[in-house]
Amino acid sequence: MGQNMAGKWGAYALALAALAAGCASSGMAADAPADAPAPAAGAAMAPTPELVAEGQQVFAGAGGCGICHGNNAAGGAFGPDLTDDDWAWIDPASPNAMAELADLIRTGVTEPRISDTGMPPMGGRTLTDEQLSALAAYILSL
Ligand code: HEC
Known about the structure:
The protein is mainly alpha-helical. 48% of the residues lie in helices and 0% in strands.
């Protein structure tokens, strides 16, 4: 148990470090326009192009989402199309759409509304908050 926790938080710290490095190398902090809203600590992250690109990678890669939804998210044998305007769970027009999506991905779907099968929490993987935000940003961009 203690070992597991250490491993989990170690991976989390690594992910954070990688994220910070990404920001630094893209000059985000230095080049941000003065009138850009400051990111609120703890709030859902803004859907920047960097976050969308990260989400796309996680979707088709580490997240394993493509196994069911197709690597381009257009739907597969076990999961619905996420690129169309038909949503069973999400209101993409909601100001909280990012957070709603991240929550849904975190929780999965136990009682499917459109498919025959549900979706395991995080698609069956272990994902960080940042990866969940990235996935949400990516899916909203589709
Ligand atoms: C084992 C197959 C499977 C995997 C893996 C999977 N999903 Fe799903 N997902 C589903 C199914 C099935 C549904 C539809 C549930 C329903 O009918 O309500 C769904 C629904 C969704 C929805 C809601 C769509 C809507 O119309 O509101 C989102 C968003 C989503 N998945 C994202 C993801 C992401 C991101 C991942 C990767 C972390 C992922 N899924 C991995 C099977 C999967």
